[in-house]
User: Which sequence fits this backbone?
């Protein structure tokens, strides 16, 4: 009977260990992916120029669980995250939020109460601070097959900025945390959102019994632009009036008054764009006397 040298025994033993390790190394990632789903990690920066970053998640399946964690990693960033149906145009979210806030202010409400109302209307799921500290964390059981958006933005409660770390889980069975690493194929892609041009202009106007109204020509509007108009009288006892006109003659929209009729305002949307619009600012209710009235006009575009 032959004998195996000590060197031969050592080589066989060492080869067995290598083969076993290779088998384990192959099996573990497969088991991990099956048991815990997929994880994707993204980073970015939010500041005055980049107030939010959108991601598109294509072909999610009904019943899958999408988990999201956003963490501020530098500066003062206090992130907010939201999951949005893929059928909603991200470019409309900002102007819609601003319009809702302005309506609340005009109605004498606390603007902060608008935030959860707006979020619950436009977002499928969202969060500000429940991830621990300033971290934002939320999840959604996907209601139907299709595309979805994830938004990382700054909390509207404060002007913060800095770098963020976004962790996304797709049917991931463990809580998302700093220790979680990427697993499986990526499923989220950052997208660039072209928002509507935003602007606000203030104009001080003096009306009088000799010049009881002025007409202001407006720039052309792009599709989905929204015009916001606010006028108030700085002269006691006088009531201002404002109206949107098409081609200088056709009345389109008039201002709604506050309780004491010293202010008037309205919003008007242009789904297909518009041109040749003017604003007519006047003093309401002429009484035949000689008078002057100082009026403050604010005109916003998608503001």
Assistant:
């Amino acid at each position: 009977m032959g004998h195996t040298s000590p060197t031969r025994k050592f080589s066989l033993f060492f080869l067995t260990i290598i083969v076993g390790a290779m088998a384990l190394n192959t099996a573990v990632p497969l088991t991990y992916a099956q048991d815990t789903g997929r994880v994707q990690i993204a980073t970015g920066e939010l500041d005055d120029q980049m107030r939010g970053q959108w991601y598109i998640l294509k072909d999610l399946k009904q019943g899958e669980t999408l988990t999201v964690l956003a963490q501020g990693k530098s500066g003062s960033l206090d992130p907010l995250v939201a999951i949005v149906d893929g059928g909603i145009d991200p470019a409309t979210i900002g102007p819609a939020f601003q319009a809702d806030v302005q309506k609340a202010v005009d109605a004498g409400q606390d603007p902060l109460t608008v935030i959860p109302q707006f979020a619950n209307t436009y977002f499928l799921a969202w969060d500000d601070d429940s991830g621990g500290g300033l971290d934002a964390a939320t999840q959604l059981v996907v209601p139907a097959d299709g595309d979805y958006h994830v938004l990382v933005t700054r909390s509207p409660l404060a002007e913060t900025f800095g770098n963020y770390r976004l962790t996304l889980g797709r049917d991931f069975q463990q809580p998302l945390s700093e220790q979680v690493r990427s697993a499986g194929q990526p499923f989220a892609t950052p997208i660039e959102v072209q928002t509507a041009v935003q602007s606000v202009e203030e104009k001080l106007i003096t009306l009088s019994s000799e010049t009881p109204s002025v007409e202001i020509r407006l720039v052309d509007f792009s599709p989905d632009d929204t015009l916001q108009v606010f006028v108030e009288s700085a002269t006691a006892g006088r009531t201002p009036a404002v109206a949107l006109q098409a081609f200088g003659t056709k009345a389109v929209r008039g201002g709604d008054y506050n309780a004491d009729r010293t202010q008037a305002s309205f919003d008007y949307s242009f789904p297909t764009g518009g041109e040749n619009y003017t604003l007519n600012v006047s003093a309401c209710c002429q009484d035949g006397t000689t008078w002057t009235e100082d009026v403050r006009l604010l005109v916003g575009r998608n503001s």
Observations:
- The radius of gyration is 30 Å.
